[in-house]
Amino acid sequence: FNQNKNLQNKQYKIESFQKLLLQLKSKQLQLLHILHIENQKVKKIFGVTSLEENFVIFKSTELTHKNLWFWPVLFHQMCALFYGSSANNFTDGFPVLIMALICGYMNGISEIMKSEMQFISLITVKRWEKEEKYQEKLINCIKMYQNIFDLKQEFNKLYSKILLIQHGMSTITICLVMVKLSIDSPLDDPGMFLKNSSYIMTMAYEIYMIDFMGSELINANEELKNAIYSIDWPERDMKFKKLLIMFQQRTQVFIDLKIGYIFNVDLIIFRDIRYAKVFTATVVLLY
User: Fold this and answer.
1) Residue 123 has what DSSP assignment?
2) In Å, what is the CA distance from 121 to each residue of 35, 124, 234?
3) Domain ranges of the chain
4) Predicted confidence (pLDDT) at residue 216 exceeds the cutoff of 80
5) Distance in angstroms (rounded) separating the CA atoms of residues 66 and 43
6) In sequence order, which residues have a C-beta less than 8 Å from that of residue 166 and are 6 or more positions away?
7) pLDDT in tens, 163-181
8) Among positive and negative, which fits the CA dihedral 109, 110, 112, 116?
C-alpha cells in the first residue's frame, strides 16, 4: 500500500512538472511572437533587420554604425575620454599653475622692493611725501605677502597628501618599469623597450614639472629676502624701518609647498627619485 502511494505521488509530481513545462513553452512562444512583431516595427521605422542586432553590444564587442546603439555609445565614450583626460591633466597641471602664480607674485614683490624703494638723500618736503608713498607700497607688499602665505597654507592642506601619493606611486611605477628594462634586452623586443622608455620619460616629466616649480618658488623666496636686505634703511623714516623689520621677520618663514607635510617640493626630491630608479635597476642587474 505504501509503495503504491509513493508511485502515485511520483506520477503526480511528474505530471505537474510536465504541465509547468508546457506553460513555459507557451509563454516562450508568446514572447517570440511579440519579439517578431517588434522586429517588424523596428524594421519599418529604422531600416534594421532585428532587435538582436541593435543589442549586439550586450552579446559581443563588435559594434558598427549600422546598430541603433552605435552613436549613443560613441558619444558616451568620447565624453568619458574627454573627462578622464581633462581630469588627469588638471590634477597634474594645477599644482604647477598655482606654484607659477605664487612665483609671479613673489617676483613682483621683489621688483617693487628693488626698484621702487630707493633711498632719497636730500631732506626736502618731497622726500617725506615720497616716504609716505613708500610706506603705503611697503604695507601693500606685506599684505600681498600675507595673502600669498595664506594661499600656500590652504594649498598644502589640499594637495600635500595628494603630492605624497603621486610621488610615491610614480616612484614605485618607474622603479618597476626600470626593473623590466634592466631584465629584458632591447634587441629582443624593440617595440616594448621603446614603449617602456617613453612611459618612464612621461612619468618622470610629470614629477619634474612639479619639483622644478617648487625649486623656482624657493629661489623666489631667496630673491625676496635679498631684495629686502639690499634696501638702504638706516636713514629712512622710523615707521618705514619698523615696517621693514616686520617684513624681514615675516619672510624668515619660507613660502614653500610640502609633500606629506614633511618634504619640500623641489628638485632635490626629483634627484632622490632618480637615484632610487638607478639603484633599483643596479640591484636587479647585480642579482
Assistant:
1) -
2) 98, 9, 12
3) 2-58, 83-286
4) yes
5) 12
6) 207
7) 888 888 888 888 888 888 8
8) positive
